[in-house]
Amino acid sequence: METTSRSGTIGESGPRGVDEYLRASFPWYGLDEAFTGRRWLLRTGSAADGEIEHGSVGHGDEPSFVAEAGMRDHRFTVVTTVASRPVRRSADGTGVLDATSVSSAAWLAGSGLLSCTWPQHMERSMREDWLGQQTAVAWELADDLEGPGWSTLALPVDGEPVPFHYRESEYGWVLAGSTQNNVHLGAYGRGMSAYGLAFSVIKDIAGYTG
């Protein structure tokens, strides 16, 4: 798996265990201590060289990834941390991929929200077509963070206000920004307002359950 530009693949893979998170060379972020609900691991993603490049942690209800009644009632926030990597090799070692950026975080957050969204009026056979169309839209939005599809929202990161690119849809909200620790942050959620969130470095990733 690689976190790349439009010409490559972005996604998340790997086991839902803490070992993959502990291998990362960058700090993980989650909601700060003001959030007292359940915290859980999602998954990590690695680059072509095997280095952990990004991963996500969840807060609140774990969203369902299948069509079922009441899934829109789940309240959650997922935070994705993306390492800042200016030089990245392709899987075959012959080329160089685009650097990771705030757009990478926005794309991961947008695709993450789509992955736990199932239009209730849609048959399973039509979902892949719908998901492909929505993924293309998410790409376009992530590539144009200064465009009309985004607004600006300032939220605390390690106690300091940081500007984020923010957008809402009928499926939930997505935001993306950068930190002083040389990582990019993406987040998505539903049922929990983004306006009251604050982020901080996770002191003990083992405190997040699998």
Automatic annotation (TrEMBL):
Name the UniProt record assigns to this protein: Uncharacterized protein
Organism, as annotated: Streptomyces coryli
